[in-house]
Amino acid sequence: MTEIFGIPLQAFMSQILLGLVNGSFYAMLSLGLAVIFGLLNIVNFAHGTFYMLGAFGAWLLLTYAGLSYWWALVLSPICVGVIGVVVEKTMLRWLYKLDHLYGLLLTFGLALVLEGLFRQQFGVSGQPYQVPDLLKGATNLGFMFLPNYRAFVVVASIVVCLATWYVIEKTKLGAYLRAGTENPKLVQAFGVNVPRMITLTYGFGVALAGFAGVLAAPILQVNPLMGSNIIIVVFAVVVIGGMGSILGSILTGLGLGVIEGLTKVFYPEASSTVVFVIMAIVLLVRPAGLFGKEK
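User: That's the sequence. What structure does it adopt?
Assistant: Structure tokens below.
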């Protein structure tokens, strides 16, 4: 049997796949955080909770409405985005001119409240969610069996992330978004409704988290703690990539997922801390992050 560094090839590639799957979730969540921070200057600590709401939305749509995974993949992120719009219009709008700490404290409190409500209603044991029939099974690549659903998760995440980057960085809409956060009065002079644009941007950012939650539902058990379990790592990813850097969040999320997966092969004891070690090194060498802009 072929080995790499003394590890069977199948086990080695399996850990890379696992790392890519985790990295896909890191990339999508950190992308949403980067969009919200880069365009709205809000440190959204409730992002993990919106990820959890996306997964629960898929489970509730299946359990109580009988809607399949494919319907949930569309409807659940939209519902999460609508919740985000309500949060922005009723709470966050009053904090944009204040210190970042106020937004962090508000979203942290919101995350605790929502998580507590779901824990009281559903407990913490988790709810199972089946892989859709179309993506069950695995494909034989010769050196390993590739689970179809996990491959779909990686591809779908990369497509959504790159499409988001393209819209924000390469289109007129993205130019309006960036200009609206830096000089809203000038943009409003061109007839653009900046407050509405900011509201929709926040809604889209949390919808990305909801989309990631739906993707995660068949892999992880749907439970109220799934957001709080991942959000600290995602914040570390954002810091490493550079706060507000869209491309940095995507590349760093995927890269750190693979590094974490390989660490489980070569040094399992460090797999839960390797991301934070990398964050500490990056902050010492480049405080703005790998892709961030030095001020």
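The radius of gyration is 19 Å.
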